[in-house]
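Let's do one together. I've listed all components of the complex below, 669 residues spread over two lines.
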Amino acid sequence: MFRKFKKFQTSLVVGTLLAKRQITRGNFWINLLIIGIMTLTFLSLVVISGILVGLLEGSFQANRERYSGDVFISTLADESSIQSTGMIQSTLESLPIVQDFTVRYKSGATIEANYRERRDFSALPNSVGVNIVGIDPEREESVTGLSESLVEGQMLESDESGYILLGSTFIRRYSNFSDLFEPLDEVYPGDRVKVSVTGKGLTFSSDLSGDSTASSNTQEFIVKGIVKSKVDEVSLAAFVTESDYRRLTGDTSLNAQEIAIKKADGYEDQYVKQVLVSYGFSNLAKIQTAAEAIPKFLDDIKQTFSILGTAIGGIGLVVSAITIFIVIYINALTRRKFIGILKGIGISGTAIEIAYVLQSVFYVLIGSLIGALIVYGLLVPVIAANPIDFPFSDGILVADPLPTFNRFLILFFVTVIAGYLPARLIVKKNTLDSILQR
Amino acid sequence: MAIISVKNLIKTYGNGEVETKVLRGLNLEINSGEFVAIMGKSGAGKSTLLYQISLLDRPTDGQVIVDGVDILALDEDERTDFRLKHLGYIFQDYALVPELNAIENVIIPLLMEGISEDEAKKRGTESLKELGLDGKANNRPNQLSGGEQQRVSIARAIVQNPQILFADEPTANLDSMSSAAVIESLKRLHEKGQTIVMVTHEEEYTVDCDKVIYLIDGQVAEERIKQKPLK
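Okay, and this is what the predicted structure of the assembly comes out as:
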């Protein structure tokens, strides 16, 4: 046993020397070629699945940044509003773990445009059904940066009245859904629209000139801006100030439909949620972290994309393993004479195999290191700063360290085997045949 | 005392219809400390004989006893180990590993034997010095002349003090000056008691040999003991 261990130890010493010399003094271009293959394989394993996952992750991230915040409070399933919204607000104001929050009041509404130019009253009005959202513009801006989604016009201000921000999906020139519903024709900032709310509170109607009409729950607003986002909740909504919302809907209740919370730095989403649950708020509303607020089917799609990415990367891995095998086999084959001579002078087959395995280890380590530098030093930050413009999300590159490390391990073992097998094949050949290359 | 004993050695290449019998029931004995030359025309079987008795190849039949060990009974790993511990080789084309420098080529068998790198380098340097290659230790094979490469090869072969040194046409690729230097090196080793078995075409290099074995068609045609002229 000890003899075998000693023999392996000396084989390791000789194998290491041979590997070191073959790498440092061998053909530079072959080394570069193999390292290049390893780098590309690493990238294909990490980047393809990373982009596929990032396609949805970008959407999730946008949802967090533009809509749900880090923790999202919404109505319980059997309720129409968050109970005791005022108490929850007061508590949130006092919690140091909360940086800011925004309260939203929501209701279904109809928006009609171009009614002043309407000549044919037998034709359908140019109107769409929307979610009308009452917000405190400053707090909304602080939590979700709503103004960053403006593509035309300006942001609402807290102390003004009679203005509305329209989601771009409802405007024909921005809408991708004009085959599904009739969007509003050319509406620009400064144009007037009528907003009608049904089934809520008061029944009155007025326009900006103050003329009262007989119709119920309808008000005229001036379009102040148009917001466009890949977050549907933003581009499929119309925003007004909270006071306008109350006037429009006649809703005198202080209970809101949504509260989006931005946590203070240094706290986990889950921790903030637990604190809110500990106050008993889960009896009043549904409390979810941003991740939990994502519909399950989207999370399932994300997992599917991850598997798909791994499968595609797997094909790359197989191709790469075969390439490595061929390159190392040819490399070993051209050195067959020297392998025979080494065996001839008494160098063990194990030492020669170790030399080739160590070379493979070197190639996979350097290739993966370069790949990791490209991923984390270049691709992740660059794509984060300039997301890929997919139709339904701004795709980012997701390369979490643990899955990346797992992929590296797969690549490592495949490469080591691809390096070992050709060496084994050559070493097993008759010593004299190797020396005489016959 | 015979360090190599060969009885009824047969080596056949190929199989079936294209079988070629290279060694045909060859017998010989080589004593410890002898400098033996194996000669013969091309195809006589001299290199094949060397490969069989030096454990680089397996005989088809017969018996080969080297240093008291029946080498046909050894498996591949044992043969490799035996070569490392008991035998040294000088090949016709030097057979140095191109990525290793002179000293590394010389010490690699020592490292395989488990000798420390420092000790191996010390012994390797001495071997190189003995062969007039001090100052060339860090040169790679492509930075050495043919003669120098062959002397590095000799240094590698003798560095672990093998019982038997096998040389397969060591001067075949060398000019006359380098050849003379290599033969001189072998002569000096023989004077120190080294057993040497050398295959050569050159009659002139057998002058200092204790024994010259002349092969014809895979059999020993004649053995010439020192100073005894060939027929």
